[in-house]
Amino acid sequence: MAEHTSSSITIEATPADVMAVIADFGRYPEWTGEVKEAEVLASDAAGRAEKVRLLLDAGAIKDDHTLNYTWKGADEVSWSLDKSQMLRQLDGSYRLAPLDGGRKTEVTYQLTVDVKIPMLGMIKRKAEKVIIDRALAGLKKRVEAGGA
Fold this sequence. Notes:
By secondary structure, the chain is an alpha+beta fold. The protein is 24% helix and 49% strand. α1 packs across α3.
């Protein structure tokens, strides 16, 4: 079983404001760093993305892939790899927890990446960590700037 990498950050905004930015895939290229293009291919009855195509450039990991999204209430979204050119696995989640009476949000991002080409575990985990850290920093900056 592949190892996962996770990290958390506190954002000065409500969970709903944070999730609004997370759910706005079309604007990912503006704040994620690694995502160069994002296109929602299918949505659920509530209008939330279920299948998204992403063009990723994370240094050691470059790929055009499609992810399936599962929404768990208002505070969690997870994804799994549907198809990819170079990835065998790309599973992850954002979990939101209200802090300070709901005025702040702790966001935990968990990610598991496995590539089809041989790559040292140490390099793969470093790439996961870079993706997570940049995404969390970008999310914090975007939300706190009034981003959705």
